[in-house]
Amino acid sequence: MVDLDALEMQALFSRAAWLKEARQRGHAPQTLQGRVLGMIFEKASTRTRVSFEVGMLQLGGQALFLSSKDIQLGRGETISDSAMVLSRFLDGLLLRTYSHENIEIMAKFASVPVINGLSDTFHPCQILADIFTYIEKRGSIQGRRVAWIGDGNNMANTWIQAAVKARFHLVLACPEHYDPDPAVLMAAQQALGNDSEASIQLVRDPRAAAEQADLLTTDTWISMGQEKEQHQRLQAFQGYQVDQSLMSLAHPDVLFMHCLPAHRGEEVSAEVLDGPQSVIWDEAENRLHVQKAVLEWLLSPCPF
């Protein structure tokens, strides 16, 4: 997210909209013919893997799924060595990992573009699709109120960065001890300064965050790698479920989003997740269109 400026983000969204319309017309521009993306996964994936793999194929390129268990990276080869070797074969790399430092090391040593497919700190591809979905449904997100309810995780951190780029008001409601990364929060607040169109606020009360929100969003309380904390987390997040009573405090035209997978009855009620204000399936589909735009931007010999 930090590698994009506001104009580049708008260009990506415009291209994603064109690519989505083109697919609906049955048109598939072969802008990445002959290009190959290597995708290294340390974490399980549905939307990230399928959207990037299908996206490369639809644009005329190819994607290679590389499980960390199946390549030498899983047997002790360093990330830096892997990055330098794979750069000799591939046109781009995607890494879905635990530690964000792994992505930073790969980007430092790779001679081809590196995409963050998710880390424990950030999830930029998802947030780009979320903002694109909001724009598609409601128009510009600038100056709007976005409410994040739940864990101050990689999604929350990336929403914080996005508030600076897309200039909206973000209110995060997180229980004590589950705040977003303080360094990410401080950097974003400093970057915003006194911008009247955008702000970032951290609160404890979900109702305060939800009040008059234009977009209300959440994520699972127990992410990959946190399974041993399940009992502790379920207790800590009581009162943070997005249910209809919370939605009723938001703007009448509010949208609900979730990056999925969701757990009905935990972070969100089935009534909300499957209700008329939920746009989760469009949000999931838009991962494909936005990521095709990202792939073209990074890998095409003639980017838009």
Describe the 3D structure.
- The protein starts with 5 loop residues before the first helix and ends in a 5-residue tail after the last helix.
- The mean pLDDT is 95.
- It has a five-stranded parallel sheet. It has a four-stranded parallel sheet with strand order 2-1-3-4, sandwiched between helices.
- Helix 1 (6-24) packs across helix 12 (280-299), helix 5 (124-138) packs across helix 12 (280-299) and helix 6 packs parallel to helix 7.
- It is built from twelve helices and nine strands.
- It has helices at residues 6-24, 47-58, 79-89, 100-109, 124-138, 154-166, 182-192, 206-210, 230-236, 244-247, 270-273, 280-299; strands at residues 36-41, 62-67, 92-96, 114-118, 145-149, 169-173, 199-203, 215-218, 255-258.
- The radius of gyration is 19 Å and the shape is globular.
- The longest helix is centred in the last third of the chain and has 20 residues, at 280-299.
- The chain has 304 residues and is α/β, with parallel strands linked by helices.
- 43% of the residues lie in helices and 15% in strands.
